[in-house]
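Data deposition worksheet. Section B asks for the primary sequence of the deposited chain exactly as it was used as input, without tags or linkers unless they were present during the calculation. Section C holds the resulting structure in token form. Section D is free text for depositor observations; keep each observation to a single sentence. Incomplete worksheets are returned to the depositor.
Section A, Depositor: J.P.
Section B:
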Amino acid sequence: MTQRQDIRLGADIGGTFTDIALDVRGKLFSTKVLTNYSAPEQAILDGVEVVTRDAGIAPKDIDIVIHGTTLATNALIERRGARTALITTEGFRDVIEMRTESRFEQYDLSLVLPKPLIPREDRFPVKGRIDAQGRELQALDEAALEGLADVIAERGFGAVAIGFIHSYMNPSHEERAREILSRKLSIPISISAEVSPQMREFERFNTVCANAYVRPQMSDYLSRLQVRLKDMGADCPVFMIHSGGGLISVETASEFPVRLVESGPAGGAIFAADIARRFSLDRVVSYDMGGTTAKICLIEDYEPQTARTFEVARTYRFCKGSGMPISIPVIEMIEIGAGGGSIAWVDAMGRIQVGPESAASEPGPACYQRGGNRPAITDADLVLGKLDPDNFAGGKIRLSVDDASAAIARDVGEKLKLAAEAASFGIVEVVDENMANAARVHAVENGKNISENIMIAFGGAAPLHAARLCEKLGVSQCLIPQGAGVGSAIGFLKAPFGYEALASKIMGLSRFDAGAVNVMLDELKATAEGFVRAGTNGAIVREITAFMRYAGQGWEIPVALPDRAFTQADTAMIEAAFKERYAQFFGRAVEGPEIEFVTWSVKAQDVRSEGERCALETDGAVASMRETRAVFDPASGKMLETAIVPRETLAPGMRVVGPAVIVERETSTIVTSPFDAVIQIDGTILLVRKGH
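Section C:
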């Protein structure tokens, strides 16, 4: 189908704010509304009213709504999903509790493993076995499944997850189990062969459990959202952005809500990639800091890095393996609990700590005057003069400097014998250092030098901290795009209709079966394109990736391959592609061991125009600045009279000499004293280090 898309609306529900961006034939209108936890769709409706009024249109004029949300993530973290039954192969009942038996903190004698999403009494084993080649070794016990359907109905479960061993090779047992159960049950049933058809049973079982766990809640929410949008006159298609950065239909999202777990951050990465392409920047680090979390993503050649698995709800910060693994295609980034609402506190050793607990929108930081009395990063930024208490969020929220100072003095200052101002500086320094450390670790893990990148900062809080973060990372340039405060929502508007289909099929390169691979890829292409066609009938581009390794290795690397039918003669080409990619990761390839295919991926998305390119300007005429206020300067360690400049008064080619604060409706950009700001032709702010 072809949808007219002259007027597009993006809606991003975050932990603190819900961001709305409306594109009316190229002109952007945006707003931020506090997230409503009891009725999340209400914040979207409130935001729609604001931006349509500002644009002079009615909700009925909107052609398409694109939505991303943290609701699925929050349900997993806070364990607020449906009571879910797991039906699995006999002997594998405890896979999700035993995990991989690895210790993510080798020397921690009090190691705490995350609790499984589904308790043992709600896991039901049944006889039946498929082997690693997809052959049936033991018939499925259909009589036992009939009895289980009665048990599940009697106990009041809200959803069912089915995960059988090796179902990614042969899904027939899972499909048959769903068929039997659905005769007696009216609750949603998820099967791992559809949710995550990949090897490694712990990750696959956990992913199907997560999908089933959040499915009733997400389905109900998405249905409610569509009805309420229609009631207000916005009777247009609604699409969701998934964790891999593409758009899918609401129907698909309702069936596979686990694909939405990283949907908001994915929009931010797309936003940053679009800016990188506009300025022809091939090495970029995006920095997205909102009200609850901060995210770092590496972008090369205008494409965010991607992965096939990630973790949510980590019990140990930064500790890989301490969270709940979700095995789906995702834009790869590192995320820490350091947003504007993150709570500051002092630990037993007298160190300032920040997060991961957040004041969120309810009750909010102390300065919001909404019932919160614990100090947050926003309180510290306010005390340091970074924020205007009378013009926060476009003037919709009046901030109290007194309440912020009192909270910081009580919970941090008194414990460390520091004045509120010094304690506030300590809080923001800890935040910025945590973010810098996370960025360094993420870059090193990917074999990159973070200082060689240009930063792109967005989200309501990132422009407040970006310059200081650049100082710590040795980054000399940072871009703050137009609409940075609602960057993820704008990113939604730029996302393609796209879907990535995966399938595991272990095969040695010496035993490469071109015919079998072509059949499998044709099925993956049909699956991926089927989802894309739900939103467009335009041209589609495909990417084929094989995840490969040397035999005996524990993990795989992605190898891009041509989108065409393979022949037996292609083994030499595939071997060369693998070794070249391996050398990029590890310095050199290894001669001798067998090379294996593990998983295949087909990514399909519609073709989008790239837009105009701009040259990056690093110099300009110095702008005159009239208004000032006292803002804390990290370089001198004291409050300095600092220029306050409205962003709308700055024309392309103008230069703002730091220190300064560039203010706008949804955020403020702090230009620290080592930096100047140069306005680009499209209105983007470039922070450039003095002398560079």
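Section D:
The first helix runs from residue 40 to 55.
The first strand starts at residue 7 and ends at 13.
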